[in-house]
Amino acid sequence: MSLHAQLSPEAQARLQAQRRTSTISSLVIALLVMALVAVILLIIGISLDKKDIPTIVSYSAGAETEEDLDRRKVNTNTQRKPSSPSSSMAKVIASTTASPTAIPVPEIDVPDPSTNFGDGDDFGSGWGDGGDGAGGGFGNIPVTMKQRCSLADRLSRLESNGGTKECEDAVVNALRWFKEKQNKYGSWCGSRKVSMTSLALLDFLGHCETAQSEEFGETVFAAVTFLVDKSMKNNGKLADDFKDDHWCYEHGIAVYALAEAYTLCVKSFSENIPNLEDAVQASGQFMINSQHQGGGWEYAYKEDNTRGGDTSIVGWHVQALKALKHTKIEFKNMSKCSRLALDYMESKQMKSGAIGYSNASLHGEQDGTTLAAVGALCFQMWDKSSHSVARKACRFISKEMKFEWEGPDSDIYGHYYAAQCMINYGGDYWKKYNTLFRDQVLNNQKKDGSFKNVNTNGKGKIKAVAAAFAGNGDVSDHYRTALATMMLEVYYRFLPSSQKTGG
Predict the structure, then answer these.
(1) CA 116 to chain CA centroid, nearest Å
(2) How far apart are CA 213 and CA 104, in angstroms?
(3) How far apart are CA 169 and CA 175, in angstroms?
(4) Which domain holds residue 234?
(5) Maximum Cα–Cα distance for the chain, whole Å?
(6) What's the average model confidence in pLDDT over 141-148?
(7) Judgement on whether residues 323 and 425 belong to the same structural domain of the protein
(8) Rounded mean pLDDT of the chain?
C-alpha cells in the first residue's frame, strides 16, 4: 500500500507552476545579489585608486604692494596680560584669510653639526641666553629675558638699577604712540617700512608684548606678519628697497626682530604665527651666508668689495646673530660667522678704546664713543664681557661720552648701544652713565608718547655715524622714538651677564 496520495491533474499543474516561479525568483535574487556585490566592489576599487592632491600654498618671489596683504585677525579667546604671563595658557593665533600669493619655501642648507656652539671655539652661552625653563609661569623664555615679562619684575629691576616708575610710564606711552601710528597692513612709516617696523617691534618685545598681549596683541601680530610676508616673498631677503645699497641695515634689524619674536611668541608662549619659523630660518641663513670674508657685512651684501663692511653694520648683525641663537633653530656656520664678526670688530679698535667706522681711526664728526659702544655690546652679548675690547671700550665711553638732547652730543643711536653695554658693565661706570642719560631721555618725551626732535642750536653738527634720528619727518620721528624707548627698557630688557642665574 502506497503512503503517497495521488494528486489530481489540476493539483499537479499548480505544483509545476509554483516550482517554475520559485526557480525564476531564486535566479533573479541571485542575479541581484551578484549585481550588488559588483557595485560594492566597484565603489571600493574607486576609493582605493583615488588620491588626495594636497593644496600647495606658496609665496611667489618678487615685489608686492601693501594692498596685496590681508590683515590677519588674532584669536582673542585666550589672552594674557604682559604683567602676568602664564605658561599654562593655550595660545593659538592663526590667519583667518588665505594668502593671495603663493609661498615657495626657500632652499636652505642643512646645518653642519661641526659648527654648533660649544665645539671649543670659546663661545659660551652669552648675554641673553642663560638657560631655558625659567619657571614661575614663564614657559621656555630664556632666563635673561624673563625679567621683562612681569610688571613686578620690571619695577624691581628699575628700582635696583637706578630707574624710576616714570621710565615704565614713558615706555607704555611710547608703545601707545606706535600703536596709533601703525599702518593698515602692520608696517610703520611711508618709507623704510621694514627697518622701522622692526624697530617698533623690538620696542614691544622689549616690554614682553606678544601677539596675545591684552592691549598690544593685534599690533604685534600685524607687525610680525608684515615682516614674515616680506621674507617669504623675497626668498629670505628683508628690505623695502633692494636698489638702495643700504638695505643690509634693514635686513639685519629685521632678522633681529623676527628672531626675538619667535623666541618670545612661539618658543616661550606657544603662540602659533604662520610661517614665522620658516621666515626666521630663511632670513637668518641668508644673513650668515652673506658675511664678507673679512668678517663684516658690506653694503648690498657685496662680497667682492675690498672695504668689507663697517662696524655700524656689524653691530646690528651681531645682535641679530644672538637673537637667532635664542631661537634654538640650527643655522649653518653660525659659530664661524660670530667669531669672524668679533675679530673684525677688534681690528677696528684704537689704543684709546675708541672704535672706528671702517678702520682703526675716527670718521667724520664722530668722537669714537658711538662705535665703542657698538663694539662693547657685541662682545658682551657673546659672553666676552671680560675681553679687552669690551673693557677698554667701556672705560673710554665712561671718560669721553656726553649727552645733550639739544646739542652736538645728541647721538641717540650711540646711546642706544651705550645704555646696554654700560648697564652690563655695571658698578660706578653704570651709575655715572645712568645719571648722564636717564633724565635726558625722560625730559624730552612729548605728551603723545613720541620724543622731541634733537637740535644742535647752532653749535655744530651732531657727532653721529648718521643722524637719521634728527628731523621732523615720519621716519626720523619714528626712529628717534624707537631708540629712546629701548634705552628706557634697558633696566629690564636683558639681564646683565654679571647677574645671570643659569647657563
Answers:
(1) 21
(2) 31
(3) 10
(4) 55-103+164-347
(5) 147
(6) 77
(7) no
(8) 80
